[in-house]
Amino acid sequence: MRRVVIIGSGPAGLTAAVYAARANLSPLVIEGWQSGGQLTTTTEVENFPGFAKGIMGPELMKEMRGQAERFGTEFLTGDVTKVAFGAHPFTIDVDSGGTIETKAVIIATGASAIQLGLKNELRLTGHGVSTCATCDGFFFRGKELIVVGGGDSALEEATFLTKFATKVSVVHRRDRLRASKIMQDRALKNEKIAFVWNSVVEDILGDAFVTGAKLKNIVTGKTAELPGAGVFVAIGHRPNTALFSGQLDMDQRGYIRTSRGTMTSIPGIFAAGDVQDPVYRQAVTAAGTGCMAAIDAERYLESLHA
Ligand code: NAP
What we know:
The protein is of the alpha/beta class. Helices cover 25% and strands 27% of the residues. Bound molecules: NADP nicotinamide-adenine-dinucleotide phosphate.
């Protein structure tokens, strides 16, 4: 029987682990098959306090994991396949390690990239279609690329891709960007980045590999083909909450509802990070709520005299 199990190994999960371990709760982190969450697919993190010169996302996560481990956190590699939160003890099934029983749970499963939902997008994923410039940008040295979206993710991906590509076209469905001012300024100043406004991707072209995209201008109704060896889709994220559906209160978009700190609708189950945050979604806010969740779990266990 565990006292607290943390599901997820991004900034929320690992910060919860640091605090829970230092409170002698001997936490177990179920870290998925790929530890570290979304920051492992990003480049330079310039807005996490404490790193005046910035730090690479994967390096930051490695440091956080090491910090959690140093205080006695245990890690289990594998994905959770089922949870039962209806009775005590709570149970968690993991594909790599049977069923775990626990008195408290911190959910920090984060969010995943949204896709366009096109048939050829799925078919060509890994053959030119990607949601991670950091992972795949290297393969496109000297090529022309397409990025879809108008938020911070799209501009971050586009800016990063200019290290490899000869030209990056950002296709956005409106004529105004959603991204923050600083990211806009950077991208607009970058000579390798071009913007295709008021346009949606109707299809992704290519047989074995991506050769371009079919675009539709939603103002004029005209379609056109834009050549490119890669299409990077950066149109936002969806919370990873399918596992908890029907067991915890969620909002319309599937984010877990929390109140009084990180409490969910079931006492003893806490949620931290992007899985419960449709608004801020930053590494530092995820880490902050991870800390809160560990303190909330500690108080809950004290109230049980556990
Ligand atoms: P986002 O802010 O939700 O932006 C998504 C973009 O994709 C929007 O421009 C949206 O268009 C467009 N879009 C959505 N669905 C689409 C569809 N089906 N087809 C075409 N376009 C579509 O998501 P995000 O850029 O991933 O950013 C999420 C959060 O993380 C934000 O708070 C952001 O500030 C933060 N973030 C920060 C950094 C950084 O500071 N370094 C980097 C990445 C992300 P509309 O504008 O028309 O809605």
